[in-house]
Amino acid sequence: MRTGAPAGRKTIALIVASCGLTLLLAYFNKARCAGAPFDGYGRSLIFDKIKDSRFCYSDIQYLWLGRDINNHVFPYIDGGITSGGALTGGTVEYPVLSGALMWLGATGAHNDAQFLLNSALLLAPFALLTAWMLGRLAGRAALLWSIGSPLVLYAFHNWELPVVLTSVGAIFLMTFERIPLRRRAIGAAILLALGFCLKLYPGAFVIPLLLYVATGGVGGRELPEKLKGRFDIRGAIAVAGAATATVIAVNLPFVLAGFDGWRASFTFQQKREADITTNSIWYWGLRPMFADDAGSDEAYNHAVAIASPLLVFGAFALAVWLGWRRFQSVGTYPWVAVSGAMLCGFMLFHKVHSPQYTLWLLPFLVLFAVPWTSVFAYLVADAAIGIGVFLYFHTLATNGAVDLMENIVQFGVWGQAILLVFFFFAFLRARPRGAPRSIKGESTAPQGDLVASAH
Hints:
The chain has helices spanning 9-31, 47-50, 59-62, 96-106, 112-138, 143-147, 149-154, 161-173, 181-199, 206-214, 233-257, 259-271, 281-286, 294-330, 335-349, 358-367, 372-386, 388-397, 403-427, and strands spanning 79-81, 87-89. The protein is an all-alpha fold. It has one domain (9-427). A two-stranded antiparallel ribbon has the order 1-2. Mean pLDDT is 92; it is low at 1-5 and 443-455.
């Protein structure tokens, strides 16, 4: 099913060039918080003064101190976590590939401004390549990635751009129909596993991918010729095995070199509380139901620790099941749509909802023709958090009137939550934006393509 005219070279060039200009704006936005004079540890003195009031805070600049990044210590090898949940030594709170990128960004840096610049130069190519692939996949709709407000706000807020590339890269790789389904799915699984080693969430996408392989792609047309039975179980096992082997291969050196430091990064996230810094429905929805005392804090955190993962995995199961129902209806398992729905479930129910997570969702808003009004509404709600939460923190710190800023933050939290529920179901029914390449099985038409193949 052809859903759109091919994106020409000029369109792709526009998308990539626009992304480059947006990245410059994103860097200068964050760089307002960095620069001389510095203290004895290389921290910009201006950082603590304006990071919230001018919403130029970034985790990149903040984590120059406190994780031995400023001391150029290779991560995880010498580190751990205290009983109170504080990281020690060179351990950082992210999976190992993100930690390695943080260490690379600090190479040659002697202050947080240099670290921010080095990190921006390191991360920018990931955003540009993502823009190119999205342009090939969805045409001009990829401008949402290239010039949208999230890239300005979050490109250099944290280390998200590499993980977004892995998920988009896996989708892109699956369009090369000249490569046998098993082979390209194994390659996609490896990319998703690398994403897991960056920020975890792409690992979940392996489940719908292996179901797509097991069912033989579009209408089962890529099932092995000598297959006995309806499903390619060997192909699905190969996809799962490739992902598992990649995760083990990446993590094992860190496990052997410093198990305590490696394990501490996961323990830190397990111990993290859904407090005012997490922008989650748990803090703004569930926390007010508990009294404001130490005992209630413990009860609240215990409730979140149980409910959050249960609901996340419940959302995953629902997305996979709805995808299976669609497969039974049209003959093709919609693995990309199911992946998008799973991401919505994770973002909604996880106890932490950092503003930069919007970058994770943006490619799916590019690829699927959900209403533009809903997309723009989500960006408005996102800005209410991405800007409003820092102004809210500034107001709290300066003892100002907080009602207005608190209402803006809550508007963002609940606005995003409602739209994530909408996108969860909309992805599973939406038609493609349309472009020249092929991601099979995502159209509302039986055995249709997300986009027509260029191969």
